[in-house]
Each structure stands twice: as structure tokens, then as C-alpha cells.
Amino acid sequence: SARQNPVLILKDLYHFLRLDQHPGIPPSEQIWVNDQQILENAADFYSDFAHNFGQSDISWAELTALLNSKKAPATFLQDEDPQFWERILAAHKGHQVALELLRLPEIIAEKAGFYEFLGNEKLEVEIPPEFSDPELAEELTAGLAPQPPASGNEILAWTGGTFYSRETPEAEEYVREGQHIEEGDVLGLLEVMKMFNQIRAEFPGTIRKICVEAGSGIIVSRGQSLFLLDPDVPPVTETEEEIFKKQQEQTTSIMQNIYPAN
Fold it and tell me: Rounded CA gap, 207 and 225, in Å?
């Protein structure tokens, strides 16, 4: 961050997550002793530097400007050692190695619109108006729990549950093999925690096979194939290479905010 020393941010983060050292806590749930020592050494380095410079309340921006200068300030005490300033600069670079990565949550939050959520005087979170759009809400909700990948001619169970092929035991089955369906048609029901969710066709086509045997009341698992279809229009699916390329582009875009290209 340009506003605060990343070393202090990291120290506060350990405390916020209650990962700082506490007696009787397993090593897996607190900062390791060696890491704690490195963190304390870094914090002490900047505290001592500011004190030696004579400005204990100096801002991080001002401190960074000083430590990016190859020439020591005239008021800085070097103890008649010409290499003293060089060692300080080297220590500063060492303490800051990879701490730029702490900006990752900040950058992702900005891209996601997190900072548009504001608090009011009642300590309530004010939701931006665009999130009241049902279509956007559905899209974002689906993004939090994306459906299992399909081959383009399958309808999969998006979660584990109990499959029903008809609304009631006396009713007709929603669909049969060989039947033509349209996008949005109900194909069956998936019961999850006493809630019956409609399974709808994601594209128009003809049902080639109903993959769940014995009809209704069958336990299915997440990602299990429920229906095989012959689509009216061959689906356009992303290859693993295309997905990887998109992920790579997003990662590169984020990292360029941290490490700008020369």
C-alpha cells in the first residue's frame, strides 16, 4: 500500500486473524517463531530509522521517498561510515521483498466493486442499486458456486440431492426419451434439504437418454449426469486451453498493477 508500511499491515493482519503468538496454541494456528522474529526485526528497523532521522511520526510516503534515494539525508547520522546508508537501503529492500503481494486483495476488491459498499450511521451496509437487479444477482450467485463442467450435451446435477422425474407419484414424468424440449423446460426435480428445485433445460434439443434409473427418489451426487441431449444447435464450449488463457490474462492484468512493466 502507498499509505502504510506493508510490514505493519502484515503485522496487523496476523493480529486480526489471531495468528500472533499465544501460549498454549498449536504451531499450526499461530505465526512460526522464525517468521515472528523476521517480522519484529522489520518493524524495529523502520521504527529505529524514523527515530534516528528525528521524525518518529514520518509518513510511509515520506519514508519511502527517503529510502529510494541513493544519497543519505544531510541530517542522518552515519557514524562516519560511508557504507552505512547503503546497508540501510539493502535492509529496506530485503524487508519489503514480495510484500507488494499484500495488494492483491485490494486490487481484486476494486475490480469486484467491493468499495462501492458503504456503511451508514446505523452501521448498516448500503448495497449499490445495481445489485438489486434480479438478473445480475442470479449471475453473481451462480458465479459463487459455478455448475460442474459439462460436455455440452448433458444436464448435470449442480449439487447432491434426491432426483424426482415427476411432480407427484401419480403425475406423468416431466420428459421421456426421444422427446424434444425447449430451453427452460422443466426436466425433473432435485430435492435438497426439503427444498424442491426445478431442473430446467439449458438449451433446446432432443432427450437421447435419461441417465437416472428407477425414475424418482434417487440419490444423486454433484456433477452426476442426469440427461443426455442432442442439441438443436451444436454448443460452443471453451477448451481447457481457452479457459487457461483467460485465467492467465486476468492474472497478468492484476500483477501488472503490482509490478508495472518497464
Answer: 13
**Any residues with CB less than 8 A from the CB of 132 and at least 6 apart, and which?**
none
CATH placement of domain 147-231: 2.40.50.100
Read off the amino acid at residue 98. A
Nearest to 195 by CA among 229, 241, 164: 164
* DSSP conformation letters of 105-164: HHHHHHHHTGGG-EE-TTSPEEPPGGGG-HHHHHHHHHHHSPPPP--SSEEE-SS-EEEE
| Range(s) of the chain covered by CATH 2.40.50.100 | 147-231
Does residue 158 register a pLDDT over 70?
yes
Specify the residue for cell string 426435480: 189
Q: With a cut of 70, say whether residue 84 has pLDDT above it.
A: yes
| Better-scored residue on pLDDT, 156 or 3 | 156
**Distance between CA atoms of residues 183 and 173, nearest Å:** 18
Burial class (CB in 10 A: 0-12, 13-18, 19+), 175: buried
Query: Sign of the C-alpha dihedral, residues 186, 198, 174, 221?
Result: positive
**What residue has cell string 489471531?**
18
- pLDDT class for 226, splitting at 50, 70, 90? very high
Against a cut of 0.85, is the pTM above it?
A: no
Q: Give just the sign of the alpha carbon dihedral 68, 74, 76, 81.
A: positive
Helix (H, G, I), strand (E, B) or coil at 179: coil
